[in-house]
Design goal:
With 372 residues, the chain is α+β, with helices and mostly antiparallel strands. 65% of the residues lie in helices and 6% in strands. It has 13 helices and five strands. It has a five-stranded mixed beta sheet with strand order 3-2-1-4-5, sandwiched between helices. The chain is elongated and about 130 Å long.
């Protein structure tokens, strides 16, 4: 049961899965859309250039038969004739070839956008296995492709039959028409058949693209285990990441504790919070910096290190809370706290200089409590 649920693909494909499939050339694409666009563009080009092509072809045929006796059957003569014919064909067929090329590129671009990959061209030797090839030939997908092709031929053939059926009554009149009129009539009927067929093929192409899109999304679906495995590959194992984060916190905490002995004062709240400040004019500090801060256990450790290195502890609840919440470690204090911190540092400096403290005759009435 567990293995069965593991193989169940019920989840939509992730962006990474889609990107990997696209890089391999696995995209939702219908072969009918480029075919229909090629046919439509060819008809449009032929419709607008047919008179010019007929005129050019007639002129070339007159020139060819009028100067046939001038061409030599030797190698230089046949080469000259071949170059002349190829040049004429290139000029006459250039509009149609251009339209076909643009239609083919446009048909693929509209479906998959710009995509360049050599993955489909990579030789796959497993395809040379006759047993696998025979299985693919008799697979359900091959049978479905065959049925779609047969259905398309039947629909197109029926549309062509209905178009020609309406022309049965005009067939006897062709015997009294000239060759030119018969050609015009034949071209008109042919265009009518192709025009109606194109619209049928457009509908079939849209339906086929919808089917290919559905099949593509179905084949890309992933199981929940595959999504978990992909997340682990992309983000890493959550247990390992948690351990790495824990180690990083330990390293940051150790560095913070190593910075406490360099502090000038530790401001407390009175025991729950502790914030260590340092200010050195020699290092060109614009304002005092928070070198360490902590709550609970960390607060106890900061006070313990401060007492060990004879760093003054000043109790000031509002200031300690403001520094703890508003200033990160390594940042300078904001201007709003300049005055309060300056008063604390001034008192600490006087405390470190007994002569100045004795001369002032007072301890600092603004301090709630001092330990040193």
């Amino acid at each position: 049961m567990a293995e069965e649920s593991f193989q169940e693909r019920t989840e939509q494909a992730t962006p990474r899965r889609r990107q990997e499939a696209r890089e391999k050339g696995n995209v939702a694409k219908s072969r009918e859309i480029p075919s229909v666009l090629v046919l439509l563009f060819s008809l449009l080009v032929f419709h607008f250039t047919s008179q010019w092509m007929f005129k050019e072809f007639s002129g070339f045929m007159r020139f060819f038969f009028g100067h046939a006796s001038e061409f030599s059957l030797s190698f230089p003569g046949t080469r000259q004739l071949f170059v002349l014919v190829m040049k004429f064909m290139a000029i006459v067929m250039f509009p149609i070839l251009t339209g076909v090329t643009v239609a083919a590129l446009l048909g693929n671009f509209l479906q998959v956008g710009f995509l360049w990959t050599a993955e489909p061209l990579t030789p796959k030797f497993d395809r040379l296995d006759p047993v696998s090839g025979f299985k693919r030939l008799l697979s359900v997908q091959s049978f479905a492709e065959l049925m779609r092709s047969v259905l398309k031929i039947l629909i197109v053939g029926y549309v062509a039959y209905l178009t020609v059926k309406h022309q049965y009554s005009r067939l006897p009149d062709l015997v009294v028409l000239s060759v030119g009129d018969i050609m015009k009539y034949t071209l008109s009927v042919s265009f009518d058949i192709l025009y109606r067929t194109c619209w049928v093929l457009v509908v079939l192409a849209i339906l086929d693209y919808g089917f290919q899109r559905w099949q593509y999304e179905r084949d890309l679906k992933m199981s929940k285990q595959e999504i978990k495995d992909e997340f682990k590959q992309r983000e890493g194992d959550p247990l390992i990441k948690a351990r790495v984060r824990k180690m990083q916190r330990e390293i940051a905490r150790r560095r913070m504790m190593e910075a406490v002995p360099k502090a000038d004062v530790v401001i407390t709240n009175p025991t729950h919070l502790s914030v260590a400040l340092r200010y050195s004019q020699g290092e060109k500090m614009r304002a005092p910096k928070v070198v360490a801060k902590g709550a609970g256990f960390l607060s106890d450790k900061i006070r313990e290190i401060a007492k060990k290195h004879r760093i003054p502890l000043v109790e000031n609840k509002p200031l300690a809370q403001a520094l703890y919440k508003g200033v990160d470690i390594g940042e300078e204090i904001p201007e709003a706290l300049y005055k309060a911190v300056a008063e604390v540092l001034a008192y600490v400096y006087r405390l470190k200089n007994p002569r100045r403290l004795k001369h002032s005759g007072q301890e600092n009435p603004g301090m709630a409590g001092v330990e040193g």
